[in-house]
Amino acid sequence: MRASLIQIAVDEGESVNSRRTRVSSLVRDVASRERADLVVLPELWTTGAFAYESFASEAEPLEGPTYEAMAKAASDAGVWLHAGSIPERDPEGPLYNTSLVFSPDGQLAAAYRKIHRFGFDQGEAVMMAAGSELATVRTPDTTLGLATCYDLRFPELFRGLVDAGAEMFVVSAGWPARRREHWLLFAKARAVEDQVYVLACGTGGSHAGVPQAGHSVVVDPWGEVLAEAGDGEEVLTVELDPAKVAATREQFPALKDRLLGLAAPRR
Ligand SMILES: O=C(O)CCC(=O)C(=O)O
Fold first, then answer.
1. 65: pLDDT strictly greater than 90
2. 137 in a domain, yes or no?
3. Which of 62, 74, 145 is nearest to 111 (CA)?
4. pLDDT value, residue 92
5. Of all atoms in ligand 1, which is nearest to the CA of residue 179?
6. Which of the chain's termini has less CB crowding within 10 Å, N or C?
7. Which residues form a coiled coil (predicted)?
């Protein structure tokens, strides 16, 4: 199975519409040139994850222009497409940071509303509502478990995905450069502790005055980094062996030793 991560640089000189058109072409080109089965895009690449003031103005209904463009790109290219996330405006009113995954015939396979919102008392944390449901996608090769950016800091979410059968975590992000080491550390930690592949696709460049971490990364279930991007716009392609997940879990069966419901310490 081949996967290509497209680390988009969100340049404020490019309009959202132009970027949508450019990224649609990129998905088609990359899928065919790299012979990819799965293409992955970053979080909120239409606006930039730190362009808070654009969230409301660029918010779209679930089946809005980005959905349409990405569904078409997936079916034109005949590829599984994790199309990153959009600022979604729910008909009831709230905004969500929603990732979209399409199957190779352009059908929506999953919509995942980011559970852990970033910003503490500002930005996304106050402007968007939190999702509450884990999301997995069964493909002919494997089961993908979905997560978005700040979610990466919360291992219990990923254990939930493992319990739901995930063998590859796809993390779509717009992580800042200032905490790049955390990003790389968490990507490796989640791969090792859950014995899965981690495909973590972030943004490059800089937007809203926030330099982006770039360094999209693919880690195998043993914790080996298979590929890592630099700071700018870049495509990473990796060959993945879905059977390696079961093989790793058999060779080193630590997941079987999980103890759930540990008692609280006695006072
Ligand atoms: O956790 C972090 O350091 C960054 C998270 C983030 O930028 C996000 O979720 O948008």
1. yes
2. yes
3. 62
4. 85
5. 3
6. C
7. none
Q: Judge whether 43 counts as a catalytic residue.
A: yes
- Return the CATH number at 213: 3.60.110.10
Ligand 1 pocket: which of 50, 112, 124, 149 to mutate (most atoms within 8 A of CB): 149
Q: Is 261 a domain residue?
A: no
Q: Hey, what are 192's tokens?
A: 């090792």
Look at the chain and report how many structural domains it folds into: 1
Q: What is the mean pLDDT of residues 212-238?
A: 98
Q: Which domain range does residue 213 map to?
A: 2-254
Using the predicted structure, report yes or no on whether residue 69 has a pLDDT greater than 90.
yes
Contact between residue 3 and residue 36 where contact means Cβ atoms under 8 Å apart = yes
In which band, very low, low, confident or very high, does the pLDDT at 93 lie, cut at 50, 70 and 90? confident
DSSP 130: P
Percent of the chain with pLDDT over 90: 97
How far does residue 79's CA lie from ligand 1's centre (Å)? 28
Residue 42 and residue 118: Cα distance in Å, rounded?
15
**What is the reported pTM?**
0.97
Answer for the pair 87, 128: CB distance below 8 angstroms, yes or no. yes
Residues with CB under 6 A from ligand 1: 49, 118, 149-150, 153, 174-176, 179, 182
